[in-house]
Write a structure and sequence with these properties.
Layout lengths: L1 H5 L4 H6 L5 H31 L8 H19 L5 H33 L2
Length: 119
């Protein structure tokens, strides 16, 4: 418990140390996290390329590559900055606020469309 309180990121590895042969479990966890991150970045670059292409279902490889590199550069610059992970948390908090307002606007559009449909 002391490890988790000092560094929450190490909590999973502290838990894995309780199992027999934790090295293999560590490798499995690292591979799983890597697959998750790569899949998420690929999906994000695809969606951004699709949005930049005005909804084109099959955006060009150049566009997907541009957005993938943009995501990678922004992620690396925020992680390797002096504030490190705190900068990433601040960006996500700010983005969460923006998403909140977008969702409110979507709800208003939904209710407006439903009201027009029921007339």
């Amino acid at each position: 418990v002391g490890d988790i309180e000092n560094d929450p990121g190490s909590g999973l590895f502290s838990l894995l140390n309780l199992f027999p042969s934790p090295y293999y479990l560590w490798c499995l966890v690292v591979v799983g996290v890597f697959i998750f991150l790569v899949t998420s970045a690929d999906s994000a670059s695809y969606v951004l390329a699709m949005m930049a292409g005005r909804g084109e279902e099959n955006p060009s490889v150049k566009s997907k590559l541009f957005w993938g590199m943009a995501i990678a550069v922004l992620t690396a610059s925020s992680l390797f900055s002096e504030s490190g992970i705190h900068a990433v948390r601040a960006v996500f908090s700010f983005a969460g606020i923006a998403v909140f307002f977008i969702l409110i606007a979507q709800m208003l559009c939904l209710f407006s469309g439903l009201a027009r449909h029921n007339k």
